[in-house]
Write a structure and sequence with these properties.
Layout: H1 5-11, H2 31-34, H3 65-69, E1 77-82, H4 85-96, H5 103-113, H6 115-120, E2 124-127, H7 132-138, H8 142-154, E3 163-165, H9 177-184, E4 188-190, E5 200-208, H10 212-223, E6 228-236
Parallel strand pairs: 1-6, 2-5, 5-6
Antiparallel strand pairs: 3-4
Helix pairs in contact: 5-8
Length: 240
């Protein structure tokens, strides 16, 4: 069917996934919208991936004070973009507005952020799960949609049914930072520990805010035998 694509591009040309302007390639942004996305690039914390400010770009092997003080359980934590107003609008449309057509664009961004993890090796990809109640309302798990696309691009096995959420919790964005860890404590379970035993896991979610949800899942996966766990999110909230 590739020979039909030039004809289809004339009839239905590719359009910017944000503003709808005609663009050259599928699953992309126009130049103006692309400039609104704040991609995370070096220098950033080698451990948690938080970008540094006012530091020379050559300083790409630094650890931030938070990670020096309390080393995260995750081997690496990476995110593709900062959660600014532009990213928020796109992600909310993807998450709540049935804009699953954004998955390919997002996965390409995430693939760039995953370079460090891929270099160190990944055996299986696992998405952060939703509770059954929330899944019924939303009809799809945005983390699982992203995980499937990243798995396809990296040709890595995905296990979307192993890590499950066993109880409904309050939405994390509505809670204060100190209440988030308590809210999701013991909310997840690994159904098949033998599938991850000795494996290097890449845990995927859409947005990292305080990291409470990701950290809870990382600890659980390690407790159930994972050799290492890296986290990868589409966006992250920049800490003050």
């Amino acid at each position: 069917m590739n020979f039909l694509k030039p004809l289809l591009d004339i009839v239905l040309p590719p359009r910017c996934k944000s503003c709808g302007k005609i663009v050259d390639t599928d699953h992309s942004l126009c130049e103006m919208c692309f400039q609104k996305a704040e991609f995370i690039s070096a220098p950033y914390c080698l451990q948690c991936g938080m970008p540094f400010e006012n530091i020379d770009e050559s300083a790409n092997h630094l650890i931030c004070p938070n990670c020096l003080k309390k080393k995260p359980k995750a081997r690496l934590q990476r995110s593709a973009v900062l959660y600014n107003d532009f990213a928020q609008d796109l992600i909310l449309a993807f998450k709540f507005g049935d804009r699953t057509d954004l998955k390919t664009l997002f996965a390409k961004w995430m693939l760039l952020a995953a370079r460090d993890s891929l270099k160190q090796g990944i055996d299986v990809i696992i998405p952060v799960p939703l509770s059954y109640r929330r899944l019924v309302v939303r009809r799809y798990n945005q983390a699982a949609v992203l995980a499937k696309e990243v798995a396809k691009l990296t040709q890595t096995p995905i296990d979307a049914m192993n890590l499950i959420k066993i109880r409904h919790t309050k939405p994390q964005p509505r809670l204060q930072k100190n209440a988030r860890a308590k809210n999701i404590k013991n909310a997840y379970r690994v159904k098949y520990p033998e599938r991850i035993r000795g494996k290097r896991v890449l845990l995927i979610d859409d947005v990292m805010t305080t990291g409470a949800t990701l950290n809870e899942c990382v600890k659980l996966l390690l407790k159930n035998g994972a050799l290492s766990v890296d986290t990868l999110t589409l966006a992250r909230v920049k800490k003050d």
